[in-house]
Description:
Layout: E1 6-12, H1 15-27, E2 35-40, E3 43-51, H2 54-78, H3 84-113, E4 120-127, E5 130-136
Antiparallel strand pairs: 1-5, 2-5, 3-4
Helix pairs in contact: 2-3
Amino acid sequence: MNEQARRTIASYTTYQEAERAVDHLSDRGFPVERVAIIGQDVRLVEQVTGRMGPGGAALHGAASGALAGALIGWIFGLLNWLDPVVSGLLLALDGLVFGALVGALLGLVVHAAQRGRRDFASVSFMQPSQYDVVADEAVRLPAELPSGTGTSTGSGAWKSGRPRSGPAVT
């Protein structure tokens, strides 16, 4: 979709509302391949999930190392020409154990090197403040869309003067 040939049809405060609007368009036979949902004013949110002590650091390191070790061991085992299935499984198991040990040690070393800085676990995600449903300028739009719980665009009017969103569809 060409960036200059787009216009905002409606704005919603949640992704689910924007998704419902596109679903509404699809149900009415609208060519939804000409529609996009665009998140505006994106911010990074880091949700703290708990404290991270030496035990937690070792456990997270062991889990990461075990996965990597099992994968590397399995790949090396597949390169054995005589009995690739048996050797692949055995090397994957050995890689899992070795990777868990090395990962646990590295987790402890990294945690100790930080000296109390960032001694917590967290999950990061991107969160837009609004979601715009946009479409090509060339397509004819239906008269109504499901309304959102609140748009951040004020009056909710189209850029061309027509209503931005209509009554809610149940």
